[in-house]
Amino acid sequence: MKASTAKENILRKIRQALSTPVPVPFPLSEGTESVFQPKTQDNEIEFAERFTKLQGRFAFCANETELAEQLQILLTARSWQHIYCVEETLKSNLDQSALNISFTNDLPSCEASITSCECLVARTGSIMLSSSSPSGRTTSVYAPVHICIAYTNQLVYDIKDALQLMKEKYGANIPSLITLASGPSRTADIEKTLVVGVHGPKEVFCFLIER
Amino acid sequence: MTDTAASFIAKSTIKAADMEHRRKINFNIAKYNAVVPIGKEQFTDVMLARERAKNAKWRAIENLDKYLEEFEKKISERGAKVIWADTADDALAEIGKICAAKNCTTLVKSKSMVTEEIHLNDFLEKNGIESVETDLGEYIQQLDGEPPYHIVTPAMHKSKEDVAKLFVEKLGVPPGLTPEQLTLVARDKLRTKYTAAQVGVTGANFIIADTGSIAITENEGNARLSCAWPPTHIVVVGIEKMIPSINDLALFWPLLSTYGTGQQVTVYNSIVSGPKQPNEKDGPEEMYVILLNNGRTNLLANAKTREALYCIRCGACLNACPVYKNIGGHSYETTYSGPIGSVITPHLKNMGDYKHLSNASSLCGNCTQVCAVKINLHELLLENRQEAVAQGESSLSERIAWKVWRQSSLNRSMMNIGNGNLKNWVVNKVFKGWTTHRSELHFSQKTFNEMWKEQHNQ
């Protein structure tokens, strides 16, 4: 019963302390209007610009056929032989487009992983991923290269829109992990020198398809 | 003087004269200063953003009991277990129990100041568990056997040459590696640790009441990996990290990134709401959230110092502080250094041993100026000084000195006693405390009062 005692102790101390309330610091600053720069151009363009600035690699595709072509060029150029993808819908789409991909079932040894995403945030150039996808928590972060396939109707302007979308889609059953991923993994822990590619992917590709 | 104060003065005296240290810190902080304005460009009104953030933290803290219970209820429904810990020892004992039950031999840890606060690594080592720091900066510090120097940039005081040398000594890599190569070495060493570890430990930047979640902000991906591969995920978090709603992240994520590193948003901002759910592919089977008090309710109890609990640990006040930049993060000998550390440590630990930190400030107010959530830091330093004296934590000589000062200040004729030479002699030669670190004072020969009388023939 020690655990419940600790809880009671802490809550008692909190309630005792809060019996002296303090007033709201800035009553005139309350409100819901955005404090961020408003949208000035199409979400597609804003996303592409922001994502590229973060060293993300962006490609626009008019349709799935174009996606297959562009993906093929990438795979050939890099001579990737082990692609990890566990999303069946994505896989069968890619298979149908006569792509020559050799898939692997082993995430640790793959050269790149392919996933879908929840949505894209234009203002920050971010990809929102969640564990409700068959790709789960590990696929997009453990592979050395992450390739994300997204559609233009998945674009939102700001983070608050993305969070709202998740609440509407999942209600009380939100995925156990939601990540807002903005470009490749990076660090500046040594002399504040930017190094791209630490524990997460060194490269992130986003193929955005018109829909 | 207490031992802690004596040690602080000794260490800061040495560091302040260390020009190589100052060069490295100035170099790093100059890089930080260059990018923060770029991060701020995303706001139409950054002042309004900070004021709203302070209001949101105010709401969270003023209703902390209700929000903590709401959080516990929501995340428990999703299969996580919430553990309340009143002290560091309670938290360690609970972590020890979990690790024992999981036969844990290797544990991966992402960066977390609260685990530094409870000295988790020492505890795990004593219990025969290998604890691997996975954040690059923390990994460097762990290799060197040093605590983090800065709450956001743990190895800020090391040059790239220092790190290269350390890697040669500890990891046997060839000398002269670049930051890129050093980063790759760490990546390779740690990659297999994630998949081998039985337990992953993370902190949390935010506790979210309305969805029953915790949020973790990072750039490297090590926190994501630490709560993806190991079958057990333990979160250690201070109770003050509360925010009312998941919607608040849309403000707090960009604000924390801007003030922490000058980024628009950090690379990975994750929301964790429980262990792997039944329909999900991977993730930990079990998740524990340890809600730590460890003195935070002391800050809460004083209506004036309460706002120190609004801190989101962006580190901006450290980077802005002239004292921090001269004496460095380690001289404080506290988990939380810089202005915020000086404000909260006397309350988290005890006033007697740490009150000296509140005096190690010129009260320039730069910390308050740059605080992401507008905490009145320099006023809280004054508040601490006042509280220390009220608790009888001042020395006898200090009390006598102030008594004499008060008496003479209230008495015109006493202030006019003696000429400037006599006063100079008293302050500069009799009470040597003044001149130890300062040049001599020079009083005017006559007081203002005397001159006024003379000129007006009174």
From TrEMBL, chain A:
InterPro entries: FTHF_cligase-like_sf, LUD_dom, NagB/RpiA_transferase-like. It holds the Pfam family LUD_dom. It comes from the Bacteria. Residues 102-209 form the LUD domain. PANTHER family: LACTATE UTILIZATION PROTEIN C. This is Lactate utilization protein B/C. It comes from Limnovirga soli. The lineage of its organism: Bacteria, Pseudomonadati, Bacteroidota, Chitinophagia, Chitinophagales.
TrEMBL record, chain B:
GO terms for biological process: lactate metabolic process. The lineage of its organism: Bacteria, Pseudomonadati, Bacteroidota, Chitinophagia, Chitinophagales. The keyword Iron-sulfur applies. It comes from the Bacteria. Keywords: 4Fe-4S, Electron transport, Iron, Iron-sulfur, Metal-binding, Repeat, Transport. This is Iron-sulfur cluster-binding protein. Residues 301-332 form the 4Fe-4S ferredoxin-type domain. InterPro entries: 4Fe4S_Fe-S-bd (IPR017896), 4Fe4S_Fe_S_CS (IPR017900), FTHF_cligase-like_sf (IPR024185), Helical_ferredxn (IPR009051), LUD_dom (IPR003741), LutB/LldF (IPR004452), NagB/RpiA_transferase-like (IPR037171). The keyword Iron applies. One of its GO terms (molecular function) is 4 iron, 4 sulfur cluster binding.
